[in-house]
């Protein structure tokens, strides 16, 4: 009986579904969450990136902020800013420092995170089957204007994207 309990406790403490498996490196998120947040951001950009063509050849100041009151860190906002900066360069816009711009692109990060739904189906005391479903979601408010005459160039627009995934574990071993 002692060996059986040792084996079951060993199974519950290993595997990707184990609470002992943490984030990669110094990131507050695991690699799977970060990958799916990037997919959600790419989806949001697919919805809006073609609109960035109007900024081609223009000197653009990119200003990215997390919406106050939203559960978005400045680190997340900086990640989104770098991602959009790459898309601006791909659209042939010239990203400049403050004071050199002719167009200001305002990006407000309304949501950037992962929602989790966990379900465990108990067998006496030990969880026999565990299922988790995740949704990574991104919501951005985009607005661009000409600094000289304050005319609207782009937006206001809301760009959204999401990525769904999940996994399950049996006796703590998984995901399957």
Topology of this structure?
Elements: H1 2-13, H2 31-48, E1 59-66, H3 74-90, E2 94-95, E3 103-123, E4 126-146, E5 152-170
Give the tags:
40% strand; alpha/beta; 176 residues; five-stranded mixed sheet
| Overall radius of gyration | 22 Å
CATH-defined fold name of the domain at 29-112 and 137-162: Rossmann fold
Compute the number of helices.
Answer: 3
Shape verdict: elongated
CATH class category name of the domain at 29-112 and 137-162: Alpha Beta
Termini gap: 28 Å
Q: Strand share of the residues?
A: 35-45%
The mean pLDDT is: 79
Order of helices and strands: HHEHEEEE
Under the CATH scheme, the architecture of the domain at 29-112 and 137-162 is: 3-Layer(aba) Sandwich
Main beta sheet: strand number and arrangement? 5 strands, mixed
State the strand order across the main sheet: 2-1-3-4-5
- Class by helix and strand content? alpha/beta
Number of DSSP E strands:
5
Question: How much helix is in the residues?
Answer: 25-40%
Q: Which consecutive residue ranges, at least 5 long each, have pLDDT under 50?
A: 14-25
Q: What does the model show?
A:
The chain is an alpha/beta fold and 176 residues long. It has a domain at 29-112 and 137-162: Rossmann fold, CATH 3.40.50. Helices cover 27% and strands 40% of the residues. It contains three helices and five strands. The radius of gyration is 22 Å and the shape is elongated. The relative contact order is 0.22. The model is unreliable at 14-25 (pLDDT under 50).
